[in-house]
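Example record used in the benchmark description.
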Amino acid sequence: MPLLVSSGLIIAIVVVVVVAVVLVAAVAASRRRRTAVAERRSAVAAHRDEAATRSRSAEQARLEAAERSARAERERLAAEEQTERAEQERAAAEHHETQAREIDPDA
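Model output (C-alpha cells):
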C-alpha cells in the first residue's frame, strides 16, 4: 500500500530541518567566536605580562646606570680634590725649597 504524505507535512518537515541546521550553524559560529575571543584575551594577558617584565627590567637598568653615574661623579670630585691637595703640597714644597735656598749660607 503506497504511503500518502500530504505536501503540507513535507513542507513542515523541510522547514523544521532547515531551522535545525540554521540553529546548529549559529551555535557553532558562536562557539568559534567565544574561542577566538578567549584566545585573544590569553594573548593580550601574555603581552601585558611581557611588557610589565620588560618595564621592570628597563627601570632596574636605568636605576643601575644612574647609580654608576653618581658613583663616577663622586670619584671624579674626589680625584679633583686629591689633585688640588697634591698641587697645594707641591706649592708648599716649592715655597719651602725657595726659603731654604734663601736661608742657606752656602748658596
